[in-house]
Fold this protein.
Amino acid sequence: MNSIFRRISVRKYEDKPVEKEKIMQILKAGMQAPSACNQQPWEFYVVTDKKKIEALSKMTPYTGCAAKAPVVLVSAYRLEGLVAPAFAQIDMSIAQENIWLETDALGLGGVWFGIAPNEENMEKVRVLLGLPEEVHVFALFALGYPAEHREQQDRFKPERIHFIDE
Ligand SMILES: Cc1cc2nc3c(=O)[nH]c(=O)nc-3n(C[C@H](O)[C@H](O)[C@H](O)COP(=O)(O)O)c2cc1C
């Protein structure tokens, strides 16, 4: 898949809205992720309100570049009813990576802002958006049409691969 070897963190965006069909396609990719026991713990909130985006950009010292994004996706999970709740954040990570790759595949760019596992930040975002108490915020993902372009860093290190043969 080309996006694996092309995706980068995009933190600058054109002042242009993202089509709803593209947002839905990105979230479809997120929901197509595998999860422990196929428990699919996710909920996704699509924020396009400029004031809310501005407020989200102040949630941590590392979220500032979300301020000018046309869209911020907030991914979250519920624990009740899950067969394997201990795996919920792992499940969310896989969904989040799918979201990032599909964003790239559609010619858009985005960046993941870590919120979980910092419980204070998870609660701050939940309260800001008025989400139900049983919803645990996992991450923010700012996206838009990219206003920055660069080559992906090559991280292949063959010395990190260890074959355990007979
Ligand atoms: C779990 C996670 C949390 C991250 N949190 C932030 C963040 O808070 N702010 C930010 O600007 N980038 C954040 N990033 C983006 C990383 O800094 C970035 O992926 C990394 O430097 C590699 O660069 P690349 O995405 O361009 O390949 C996060 C990425 C991951 C996977």
Summary: The mean pLDDT is 98. Strands lie at 42-47, 71-78, 109-114, 135-144. The first strand starts at residue 42 and ends at 47. The pocket of flavin mononucleotide is lined by residues 8-9, 62-63, 65, 111-114, 152-153 (CB under 6 Å).
